[in-house]
Amino acid sequence: xxxxxxxxxxxxxxxxxxxxxxxxxxxxxxxxxxxxxxxxxxxxxxxxxxxxxxxxxxxxxxxxxxxxxxxxxxxxxxxxxxxxxxxxxxxxxxxxxxxxxxxxxxxxxxxxxxxxxxxxxxxxxxxxxxxxxxxxxxxxxxxxxxxxxxxxxxxxxxxxxxxxxxxxxxxxxxxxxxxxxxxxxxxxxxxxxxxxxxxxxxxxxxxxxxxxxxxxxxxxxxxxxxxxxxxxxxxxxxxxxxxxxxxxxxxxxxxxxxxxxxxxxxxxxxxxxxxxxxxxxxxxxxxxxxxxxxxxxxxxxxxxxxxxxxxxxxxxxxxxxxxxxxxxxxxxxxxxxxxxxxxxxxxxxxxxxxxxxxxxxxxxxxxxxx
Length: 370
What we know:
A 6-stranded parallel β-sheet has the order 7-3-2-8-9-10, with helices on both faces. It is 48% helix and 11% strand. It contains 15 helices and 10 strands. The chain starts with 22 loop residues before the first strand and ends in a 5-residue tail after the last helix. It has a single domain, classed as Rossmann fold (3-Layer(aba) Sandwich), CATH 3.40.50.10690. Helix 7 packs antiparallel against helix 10 and helix 13 runs parallel beside helix 14. By secondary structure, it is α/β, with parallel strands linked by helices.
């Protein structure tokens, strides 16, 4: 007997504009021209080493991958990330599901971030119509179109809309491809189900994003570099909405994981920046590097010359260049440092606020590659 499930369709969704927001992107963003905060002398050499590694990587046409937690978006750093992309310093951006949501809410409404404690008490946390409806719809459409999670949302922001297929066309795709391309047939069937469930009209659905200039997802899509999202099921507020569909989300997120792993497969001589991501970044990196090493070994090579910078607010009392601390040392349980210390190459840890780190990197790297 299957377990009973909660009926999301009975949950009352509210307009996003009814929410009291803690952040307004027009006033809370960080302009790329902002002078960077000073870096303590003890950390300066790590920052300078990172800059030189990035320069060397880009001269060799090697990837510079930045994985970051949602606070980079909440702190208004979208324009700083975009400037790094525009100057060619970053080749791949990766974040979690919350990073996608905050970036979208800023682009669509210009505001984001709610009072979680109060909203949970009132049974309102995450139950916002437009956030759940549009992000989930973009992922569902994108999964059918062959896009990843981040690219699907970035395309919606940049183009300010979505194209809803004709139901009869989807029926034809299902019928014609079920034998030859069952994955396409399944994606078409999932989208057809949602079109019928929500009575969506086929054709162009205009979705204005008045503040899209602050969106790093839109910027990455515009510049043609991967922006991948690596969600965990149930972690984000879009799961509250009945438009959420696990099969489509899984298709899009799997594409993003494999796109991320592809970038990591070329990391020999490249740079990986993990900024403010205690769980997502180390977890996807170790699996991706294992896949990449497996393939490299089969080809008679090995990925060894990569540089990893890990940055977060927590102090690290252990010299990670000496290997792992013993299990009785609290530093052993600092997951992100422990994981990255096992990944070969060269790893450095820099205790810093993400605004301080990214602004310093931007200003030290300069306007163009040497």
